[in-house]
Amino acid sequence: MDIRTHLLKGNSRANAEAVAAYVGNDRDRFRVLMHCMLDDDRRTGQLASHSVAIVCDTYPDLALPYLGRLLGTLDAPVHEAVQRNSIRIMQTCTLPKGLHGRITSVMFAVIAEPRRSIAQRAFAITVAARMVDVYPELAAELELLLIDALRTDPGPAIRLRAGKVLKAIRGTTPGLQNAS
Description:
The chain is mainly alpha-helical. Helices cover 69% and strands 0% of the residues. It folds into 2 domains: 1-94; 99-180, no CATH class.
């Protein structure tokens, strides 16, 4: 299967799942798929990002070598789907200690930006909560961000995730990761 050609067949869940099933846990195929997401044209990147996210739901650590580049998409002129799925992947993959500062900074910035999509902000809440699990001294800052997010964008996804994380921060739920 030519991954790029198959991606360009259309923007459907069935197509994204077919590509993801073909890629599976194969690192070489995943590298090709990541190239489509990060280095190809805007449309191909959009379509590939959905398949990448599906693959990473099952094999999250395939994304480890690409985490720096995935973070870079959040400030790049790429399709919103690439940004959304980049954050989605970070919810479950191992986050290398060397990137913790950058990840935390970027996720806090995404949460604070009301112009970001609701999905990006909701996924960023989960990733930020993972960072606060490692660095509890950041809990007060995340709490303020979430209170502000709830004030500016009380959509259901933000309300649900922010509410769970706030309960965990305030000590009514054990472990922030379990709250997301």
